[in-house]
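User: Reviewer 2 asked us to show a designed sequence for the structure in our supplementary figure. I'm pasting the structure tokens here. Could you produce the per-position amino acids so we can include them in the response letter?
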């Protein structure tokens, strides 16, 4: 990671909006995630994704918040692209304490966002919605809050797992023990799915409800499914 991306000589400043955050993290899942993708690989993936989501043409002075930001790979990607006013929200203090981006960090529940009405220009989620425990209720709360905090020209961007033919194929392949032995990334993915199975499968099983809620709050500019992901960009209704 570039030295300019981090501020490792100080503890991150976290604005606390809940008394205590969620307990994090499952050691087996964390180990698998490290095997699946290095921090630098994750950041480069997020940079490519942000460009495809339209951020290469956005003013670098807009106020952007990433929800479910964790350790901050997505915030680093925004920083490398030149965005100056970036904020992160996560319910895990454990993860936020590892977030060395220098961004404004909020320990908060994404179902109750710590922002004023119409105060943000963009909200981003990289794979956080499929961790919500109760669908569709929790998803509606999150989307309603995002709608509230975006200004009239604000945009919402999300990339989440989606049960495309490709993802079905991946699921089948990583059940094969020989594949898992020979392909480290495949084994890592299998372990991650095993440890988040309940929320992961709940998310994948409700595509109609998810699309209906996205359409309720946002006019889609991009609503594309490919390679096991949904890429969504929407304007506030």
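Assistant: Here is a per-position design you can include in the supplement:
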């Amino acid at each position: 990671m570039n030295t300019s991306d981090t501020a490792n000589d100080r503890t991150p400043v976290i604005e606390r909006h809940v008394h205590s955050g969620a307990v994090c993290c499952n050691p087996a899942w964390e180990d698998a995630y490290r095997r699946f993708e290095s921090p630098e690989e994750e950041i480069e993936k997020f940079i490519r994704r942000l460009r495809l989501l339209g951020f290469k043409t956005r003013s670098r002075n807009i106020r952007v918040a990433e929800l479910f930001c964790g350790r901050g790979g997505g915030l680093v990607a925004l920083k490398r692209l030149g965005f100056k006013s970036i904020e992160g929200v996560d319910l895990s203090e454990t993860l936020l304490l590892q977030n060395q981006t220098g961004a404004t960090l909020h320990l908060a529940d994404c179902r109750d966002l710590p922002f004023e009405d119409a105060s943000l220009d963009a909200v981003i989620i990289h794979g956080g919605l499929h961790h919500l425990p109760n669908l569709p209720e929790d998803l509606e709360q999150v989307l309603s809050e995002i709608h509230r905090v975006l200004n009239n020209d604000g945009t919402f961007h999300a990339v989440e797992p989606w049960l495309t033919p490709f993802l079905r194929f991946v699921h089948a392949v990583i059940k094969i023990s020989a594949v898992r032995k020979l392909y480290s990334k495949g084994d890592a993915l299998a372990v991650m799915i095993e440890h988040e199975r309940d929320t992961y499968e709940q998310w994948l099983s409700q595509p109609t409800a998810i699309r209906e809620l996205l359409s309720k709050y946002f006019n889609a500019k991009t609503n594309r499914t490919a390679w096991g992901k949904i890429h969504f960009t929407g304007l506030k209704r």
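For the response letter, you might also mention the following. Residues 69 and 192 are 18 Å apart (CA to CA). The chain has a mean pLDDT of 92.
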